[in-house]
Amino acid sequence: MWNMMVSKLLRVGRRQLHTIVSRDIIKPSSPTPSHLKTYNLPLFDTLAVNAYMPVVAFYPSSSIYQNSHEKTLDLKNSLSHILEQYYPYAGRLAKSLPTYVDCSDEGVEFIEAHNDNPLSDFLQHSEHEDLDQLFPDDMIWLKSNHKGDINGSTAPLFVQVNHFSCGGVALAASLSHKIADGTSIFNFFNHWAAMTRCRAGEHHDLSHMNPIFIPYKNRNVNLPKKLPDRSQGDYVTRSFVFPNSKINDLKAKIKSMTMESGEPITNPTRAEALTWLIHKCAVAAASKSNSGIFKPTGVCHAMNLRNNLVEPLPETSVGNLYLPLQFPTVNESELTPNYIIGELRKRKKESRSIRNAETALEIVAEMCSDHTAMLEASKTLDDYYIYSAISRIPLYGIDFGWGKPIKVTIGGVVKNFIVMMDTPGGDGINALVSLERQDMKIIQNDDELLAFC
Fold first, then answer.
1. Do domains 8-209 and 235-450 have the same CATH topology?
2. pLDDT for 61-79, tens place per residue?
3. Which CATH number fits domain 8-209: 3.10.20.580, 2.10.10.20, 3.40.190.10, 3.30.559.10?
4. What residues pair up with 162 in beta bridges, in sequence order?
5. Which domain of life does the protein's organism represent (predicted)?
6. Assigned architecture for domain 235-450
7. How far apart are CA 440 and CA 434, in angstroms?
8. Beta-carbon contacts of residue 237 (< 8 Å; ≥ 6 apart)
9. Residue 301 reports pLDDT greater than 90
10. What is the Cα 388 distance to its own chain's centre?
11. What share of the chain is helix, strand, coil (3-state, %, to 5)?
């Protein structure tokens, strides 16, 4: 272990000091067995964007610990034990086009920081971009200030615990998308929290939480070397909260609108209803920014494969286990709930007929076999709006023994990316919307959207 003292001055509403006080390397408490030293990335993972998913959970002050040092020590010890099961997270993978993880037990970088303000002030006065300082070395999607290892490799996981002057904590993790998806990182958080409580004396059966790394047949697919960079441009992320009562009003509106077509949508899900509303308003904002000229785009919805296959996978399966459900919206007449929700349901139905993960991989491999077509499709997808609904994961049950979080969110900005998450009380949906800055100014004043917030 090693320590390095550095400090930086950052803004959150008013001037404040956010100081990094230590850096440690946390290794698995037991060595990884020799037969598990190489974890080959399946095709699902090699196709994923080479970026870091940033997740942070905020906790108020508690009387469990006398000081922040004791809390940090418990986190380090439980992380060491949880890495026995998440052994690839403590390994190393190539920074560019990785195909496997070297499960070398080199460890996870664990950073500790202090903020001189109370947590309540931070949450009240900060914008989304102010979350960046909470993550290790700006490991936020495609942005990074981490140098990596000498041999050109990097760790899949980085952790930073941020202590506020009131005793509150923001616990942040950045996990490589090349090894896991959103479900995987939230499962990891829940498992790590449960392990921390166990080691503090609480008795829990953690067997149902164990990560499952599924072995797949290796498939050699020549992937395009250069894919569109969705980090380019001046984009910002803002939060829109839709209470369940207003979402019910939106569902009633959709039913009324579609009744006239003769194909009524009587039971849209919350995610379906909000996908239509946000997409319609986002495209309208982009057209207004473009001198009123409509620009063809599309919808790409990430569907979790774990519970949508004929032979479901365990919820704790690790990897990029999702399929992109995508379709174009090439003219304004296709911005109706009939078209958007109808197309979304049609593709869901097709995907739910897939027998198992191996069959899904065969379908994806076949799609990737045409190198030119795949590159063209990826260029087209660059103009799409990407929607992800995080459901069935108890985000606000991530309890490390200090109580439940008061806020859980995803950091950073990705072009035209919308993430829908439950609100803390489960009484609505919090949509994190990333758009071009000019489009965001317009959509923040969209009466149709705001009518349901």
1. yes
2. 988 877 888 999 999 999 9
3. 3.30.559.10
4. 113, 170
5. Eukaryota
6. 2-Layer Sandwich (3.30)
7. 8
8. 128, 129, 412, 413, 432, 433, 434
9. yes
10. 8
11. 35, 25, 40
